[in-house]
Amino acid sequence: MKISYNVLIISILLICIWFSAIVIKKNVKYKKIFMMLMVSAIAFYLTHITENVMLYNVGRFSDNIIFIERAIHFVLLGQVYSFFAYVMVNIVDHVEYYNMPKRMLLFWPVIILDILILTSQFTHLIIYVQGGILYQGPLFFLTIMLRDAYGLFALVRGYMKRELLPPIFGRSIRMIFGFSVVYLLVYLFTGDDSYSYSIILFELLVLQLALLVVEFYKENITGLFNVEAFNEYIEKHLKREKCKSIYLIKLKNYDYLDDSYSSENLQLVVKNISEILKKSTMISAIFYLGNGRYAMIVGKKENFDEKAFFDNLRENISTPFDFGGAMIQLSLFVAVMNMTNGKINANNFNKYFSACDEMRYRSEDIIEVIQGDSFGIHQLQRYRDVEEAIERALVEKEFKMFYQPIVSTETGKVISAEALIRLNDRILGFISPEEFIPISETNGKILEISEFVIDSVFKFVSDHDIKAYGMKFIEMNLSVVQCMDKNLAEKLEYYLQKYNIDPTQINLEITETATNFDENSLKEQIMNIKKLGFTFSLDDYGTGYSNLVRVLEYPVDIIKLDKSLVWSAFTDNDSFITIKNLISMFHDVRRKLVAEGVESQEQMDSLTEMGCDYLQGYFYSKAVEEMEFVTFVQRFNAGVKLRGIDGGLQQ
Do 256 and 195 belong to one domain? Predict the structure, then answer.
């Protein structure tokens, strides 16, 4: 009967192995360990069959054979429970990111015990055989203690983390724990250890059931928990107030990457970020919500260091990602929702989460962090209001082009102008481009706005003889989305023909932000457009991660020094020396310089003395509408003094 019983158990375990191989995904970290656990269990039950065969054939086996069989049996017993514990910590912790010595700490007790077992034939410490009879040594109790210690450790660790995993996992842990307690009581009162063989099978079957159900909560690409698991957690556990904070993490570049590259490459990026998040947090409750969006839940009892998390995240994501041969700098938006200060709770969480999810990006930082409970709802409403204003402006033609003069330090005359789009909504009033441009880039309206800008600027050059005014070109900004538009060169060529203008009269401005996307494609794009006769400027130099060598890799003709860099030069001596050296270095490599934000006579005189080629700022004029700008240029270049901080025309 015992042999048949064990054969049945082995058959069940073989079916479990087959089913696990089919259902559990290949990329699941604990799959190999779980399979090793099941194989060890089968080997363990085989030794039990061997024991029964020996009992039916007493006297036919030598002491050494009996010892070897029993030693293997007890070694496998420890192996089964140590693997059981290791599977558990793999499920609830990111053990794969621990170094090997730290991972091996879990196995050292069973390894030491195995050595004692295998040598106890001579030491009589654990088991030994004499005259065909198996005896227990003085340290035999260690095999039982270690087995129970591993089982208890696995159950306690799983129970501690149960709230951060799908509910079926917590229920399975409680079920295993309950049956283990029942078995322990039976053993304490009867001393009969035979029930342990049934308990092992039961625990393995329940654990496998939990693993298989948990797999249905896993997202295919990343291996993280999916949106269903996240929603279930929020619905059932948020009211228990065991959550300390929830982090919404979004890949800023996702829409661009999704439009521009293959799904295979995008999947690699998504998976890469999931690995970075796991490595940076070492917590279990990380979810992938789709479209480059992740959620991370930190429990009140978890030892989570937010500063260390952001430091690790920034360090791991700062290296450009190889995107099918194109090196692209990824950037993340992180909304932190604190669940302990009373502002966000189970009743309003979904509103706050939606607000953070739809919030526009406010900076160009690699890691942009906002506190979601500070202004989430208000920010969402503002976002939607501006979106509606953009729609109205496109339909009702409310966008207008303004022009800010750029003065040559060599001649003292207006030589160029920067074309700037403005929106004065009839409901919201003036809306800064710094607000509506990022929103239009997020919701896809930027291309329509860009068409308006191109058409307006080209028409302006066509309608006015800017050379007669003493000007050489008009500067027109290109958004990041435009820079990556594969049809941009064709569009520009179309407008050249439509308005019959000289392409050298248009200078195209790109920002350092554009260089963070696909450098190779951007360089190729610039070269194709330069072949049409256009020139290029690099705007806002000094605001991002400016690198002189990297900037010079781009075939731009003009470098525009950001106003923050210019202003700091007149408040800090080191900055003054820096900007002076920058002007000299850029001249050495045949680049022209524009200093933005010039607002005083001192700044104008100093920058002129340094050799800066062009100046732009309120010292000369703010950005003004088309006809006001034309009047300004005509009078300024005719020698009439018109300077004023308010941009007004003054004699």
Answer: no
Question: CA 419, 424, 425: angle at the middle one, nearest 5?
Answer: 140
In this structure, are 453 and 375 located in the same domain?
no
Structural domain boundaries, residue 629: 398-637
Tokens representing residue 278 in the block: 């796991």
CATH number of residue 523's parent domain: 3.20.20.450
- The DSSP line for 583-613 is HHHHHHTT-EEEE----SHHHHHHHHHHT-S
- Rounded to whole angstroms, the Cα distance separating 192 from 598 reads 90
Task: Render pLDDT for 442-499 as a digit per residue (tens, 0 to 9).
Answer: 777 888 898 999 999 999 999 998 999 999 999 999 877 777 777 888 899 999 999 9
C-alpha dist (Å) from residue 118 to 78, 129, 242, 254, 294: 13, 12, 47, 57, 49
483 half-sphere exposure, CB direction, 13 A CA radius: 28
In a domain? residue 648? no
Query: Helices (H), strands (E): how many in the chain?
Result: 24, 19
> In a 3-state reduction of DSSP, which class is residue 538?
strand
Collapse the DSSP code of 402 into the 3-class scheme (helix H, G, I; strand E, B; otherwise coil) and give the result.
strand
Please tell me the distance from the alpha carbon of residue 33 to that of residue 207, in angstroms, as a whole number.
Answer: 13
With residue 297 as reference, give the H or E element that holds it: strand 293-299
pLDDT one-digit tens code per residue, 247-263: 999 988 787 777 777 77
DSSP-derived 3-state class of residue 226: coil
Name, in order, each residue with C-beta under 8 angstroms of 327's C-beta and a sequence gap of 6 or more. Answer: 320, 321, 518, 519, 520
Q: Tell me: do 364 and 406 sit in the same domain.
A: no
Return d(Cα 481, Cα 489) in angstroms, integer: 14
Domain count of the fold of the chain:
3
